[in-house]
Amino acid sequence: xxxxxxxxxxxxxxxxxxxxxxxxxxxxxxxxxxxxxxxxxxxxxxxxxxxxxxxxxxxxxxxxxxxxxxxxxxxxxxxxxxxxxxxxxxxxxxxxxxxxxxxxxxxxxxxxxxxxxxxxxxxxxxxxxxxxxxxxxxxxxxxxxxxxxxxxxxxxxxxxxxxxxxxxxxxxxxxxxxxxxxxxxxxxxxxxxxxxxxxxxxxxxxxxxxxxxxxxxxxxxxxxxxxxxxxxxxxxxxxxxxxxxxxxxxxxxxxxx
Length: 257
What we know:
Helix content is 14%, strand content 46%. It has helices at residues 15-25, 78-86, 206-220, and strands spanning 2-4, 29-31, 34-39, 44-50, 54-58, 64-74, 88-95, 98-105, 119-127, 132-138, 143-145, 152-156, 161-166, 170-174, 179-184, 188-202, 226-227, 246-253.
């Protein structure tokens, strides 16, 4: 654990402004991180459920799931920071080739009150094999996922969902932010209540469906428009793979889809 102080602003500011900003910037900061590693083969599954904090997934390791829970407190005393860390419970479970990480605060993290109320910030940074499925959920924070050869479920109540090249099915639900998808290689479901949806590329006919939605949203010229695209798959020979399809998109589409 480490404690550090931030520098205060110089004397060039007005006294009242200097005192207010100096009090904030001079707040002590504390860190207490958790690190775990689990053996895992390609084709497994990662589950992350958090009541706060961002989730960042990188598919840059082989045969291992490495989890870092980065916890940071700004403000308050050492005792208050220790209490916040103690009451932030993180549970790790491995069931064969499935790894679960569940983070919950057992007490109200806003209960201290006062101007210099300590604040717990959490970030989940996980490295997994490239061929893996993920199921990610946070009640408040961004979700970022790099390339993945598998299915991805991403849900947040506030923040941005940023997905890279995903070969499998995507289900992305955001209650208060944008959804960005670099490439959708499988079926796509995307819903946002307060942001936009951008899909850079998608395998046809998902591409045509997303383009149709984009044209309709552009014509409406207002955010929050709801649209649903239900495309039936074309009949193909059993020896041919079935193309992905955009099942539904809700929100305002934008960009090159």
